[in-house]
Amino acid sequence: MTRRVLEPFQLGPLSLRNRIVLAPITTQYADTVGQVTEQLLGHYEARARGGTGLIIVEATYIEPVAQAFSNQLGIYEDTLLSGLSELAAVIKRHGAVAAIQLHHGGRMAKPALTGIQPVGPSAIAGAGGVLPAELSKEQIGQVVKSFARAAVRAKEAGFDAVELHGAHGYLIDQFISAAANKRGDEYGGGVSNRVRFLVQVLEAVRAATGSTYPVWVRTNAREYGVEGGTSLEEGLEVAKLAERAGSIAINVSSYGPSTPTNRTTAVFKPAVIQHLAAAVKQVVSVPVMVVGRITPESAERILGEGDADLIAIGKALLADPELPNKLAVGREEDIVPCIVCMHCRDTLQNPDIVGIRCQVNPKLARDHESLPPAPAVPKKVLIVGAGAAGMTSALVAARRGHDVTVWEKSSTPGGQLLQAAVPPHKDAIGFFTRYLESQLHRLGVTVHCREEATVESVQRFHPDAVVVATGPKNVIPAIPGLESTAAVSAGDALNGTVKVGKRVVVIGGELVGCETAEYLVEQGKTVTVVRRGQEMATSIGPSLRPFFLERLRKKGVVLLPGVRYQEMLPGGLVIETPDGATRILEADTFVLASGAVADMSLYEGLRGKVPELHSIGDCVAPQAIAEAVRDGYAVGEAL
Predict the structure, then answer these.
(1) Is 170 annotated as catalytic?
(2) 380: which strand partners?
(3) Which superfamily is assigned to 380-472+598-638 in CATH?
(4) pTM
(5) Which of 149, 278, 504, 611 is deepest in the core (most CB within 10 A)?
(6) 3-state class of 131 per DSSP?
(7) What is the spatial distance between Cα 233 and Cα 280, in angstroms, rounded to a whole number?
């Protein structure tokens, strides 16, 4: 089938080999002063080599006060030009067009990084931010000049175009949004006044780089959940004014705590802001780019319906930089799927991690490293367990050239992934499970299901190397009387292998317990979740946790943290609440979700009895998908 998304496209003077755009996603792969690094070069080279038509390099700060992220790429002085030139060259070397996004954090800039009070159109702090200093007219003029100088550097470095970041609550958007801009001069008030700063930046950039040098704007079509924020009507006016000022395209996005691009849906929904792009497309004559969880299938629909001209893909190209090339040769089943977990966003907010990460792509942040081939004499490798860790290690080992066999004790591969994909908002995990299965088949890896490994059976197999990935053991909470109660595991409740009554108490309020509660309340059950800890679902990342807890409460799930378990009675759990009161929680079914512990029994039994032995995944310690995949990759690489 001919795909519209793979058609060449003319963007002003730029000839793109296809309509796929790498959306500008901050990576934090630059060094501490914003210099290009080998890691950053490898990241962008992989996505250019993967067949993307237009690469828009991430938010790049234009002056020291503008920095909003640690290890953010910089374009604020000429000393950065050498690295930027190398970056542009490595992208263009592989046939992609290279653009770079110019960025000013405004009130979102971080004084801890800059040592300077942030600035903004008005002295209004953003959510959780520092109070900015209101820019004077003279200072506004200086910022406009900084944008122009940065654009000149981009052109000198060899970038084919620049994008102005006018979205997502940063400085240009702060001027546009009435929620952040309360000025009483010509930069405040009506939409045309609030867009004045953007127009001046566009005009200054065009004047400094020449009228033929391509520049466009990324803008919010609307803001969600921002009181007094940009409406769709205002967003359309912004797009029209940007076009009039010389923007050769409009890159459509959205912003706010409840924007669809930052929230999951009960069942995976692609192209979540297509309607916004369609609205912009109706009011401008320049090409429109659209972003927001776009799959190859939804890209075809968008283009076919005429709602956009270019498809911007962010997270999916983090998961698989080869996505365009695989589409071009009809290998859709080989594309590593994004599971919409927001792990990438969460790592950017984690001070203990420098550099964006992906749960399903352990090579992200390591694109500059090559996978070593197997030794001259490949090994006979046995992987015990076909969960995320086991299947990943099997894939990596097989790709290197080893002879790999997988044993799985259950009837189907997947391990903990199967359970994880059942609750609402989690079905995209199933895409990854099916991808891993298909890749094992494609590589000729033999998978034996219903094959429970013992020390003796492993020895009879005569492997050169064994990787134990058998998963964890469930923790049974020490509650007097529990042994005489018909309690069921969360896994069995999710898999439908046990009957769950109308009234349910879930014992354990971490990720599994709370997700099981949401699944059961959707089945029409009355659900209460209890846990000893003071907060619920703390292992869920900050991007999704507030929305998740809000959903549980709205659906009627009762959350009781900070309790003490006293005893189990027939049909009831006796607890002590944080205020010292005693309560009996009556239920038809008690679901145990009290966590898991390592199960190293097979590994310990095999120690010294096989030539090479490794353990990975949940059998070592209960892990998230990211850690399991990372460990599986590392062992597959080391065999």
Answers:
(1) yes
(2) 403
(3) NAD(P)-binding Rossmann-like Domain (3.40.50.720)
(4) 0.96
(5) 504
(6) coil
(7) 10
